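anyone seen this seq b4? input:
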Amino acid sequence: MTDADKDRPESESSIFDRQDDGRGWSAPPVEEAREEATAEAAGEGSESAEGNGEQSSGGRINTGDEEEGDVPQIFSGKQSADQSGWVRDGVDHAADPEARQVFAPLASGPGSGEGFFFLFGLNRYRGRDQEMLKRELAAIQDDIEVLRKAGYTVVIDKQATRATLRQTLAGAQEAPAAGIYWSAHGNPDGSVETSDGKRIRPDDIDPERVRSELRLFIMSACYSAARSRAWRDALGGRALVVGWGRPVTIDRAVDFLTPRDDTDNDLDDLIRRYLLERQEPPAPADEASEEAVSSYGEIEKLKALAPSIAEALRSPWREKEDEKLLQINVALESGRTQIVNICVVQSLQPFTEGQPLFAVEAGVGELTSTIDINGLLGGFATPGAARLALTRGKTRVPLLVVQGFIALESSSLEQMAGVVLEVAKRADDLEHRMFGGDVG
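predicted toks r here
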């Protein structure tokens, strides 16, 4: 399911209006009038890129369907190798004198002799990307001044490409990079877009050519934090890699660039900590040792119950046989939805050890340096069955999940549905706090 599907108004959504929508979701039948309205809305949405998941309005989401070779002819440009062996940037910066701007230090300080690079890989031929660029440029002006006063040379490149990043990492630009801010669309495989419509992946970087001065690498791109371990390895292993674990809205991305007194993990905090105070970047977070319960829980006992639980929630359900998962796409009062996994596990606690438990789990996102712990835990003190847990992710980055457990044999269908709804609401709320959108 794409994020565009989930963010569409209910009248446009098709997952509730069919017994099987082709993606495995099964839902209770609804009145014919609703089906006709849905068909009409679906027809209208097919004409718009914002209705097919390519990019939600104001978001930074990329479907990842485009292949690297699928680049319009207008993107092509001549490239030549310099003496260091790096391919020179294919963008003709002379055609746009403001595409690359260099700001000299205003004083000497901890950054003397080093640079900070704001590199934008947002597509230079895509109107919405250029609007995003304007908003981000406006939000970093205070950071530019702080860095210059600390002795750093600051570079802004609004048309960054793969070659731009390689040269910057190798120190072949205005100054060795102590910090880099890369803004672009990201993809689930860890690749990020460049301004010429291509992509760059961790495998495209040679760790041996990355200068040792690099301390901070910030990726304002969807999914980038989910592959932060791969990026950190590609950058030589020392620099702290900060990014977003899931799709993030432009509003949340700009919020990260805006100084706030109630957080300590925004851009200004990272600059202060690692470039002004010169604290050593922390070692990569240890991978969570616990697996998600949905990765080992049993589903056979719930196959007969899943339709009734889903019907109580007026939501579709499906079985993903290849992953041995039972899922309910819970419809929330907000108009959004949240996918949860249900299964049966054995209790491991004293006095109830071995008792079958009805388990509910919803993924929220990867735990990264951009996550505000205070905001994350707020609201979990209220009584209920849901809890927040850290589990082993698929990309070596710990994954935050919301879980709920109740006794299987003594619980009614209504009680099971209640736990599913509570977990779904908690997970949805956390996604909005972390990423500014509905991503699960």
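Confidence is low (pLDDT under 50) at residues 1-18, 29-94. The chain has three domains: 1-54, 73-276, 287-440. kinda curious what u guys think
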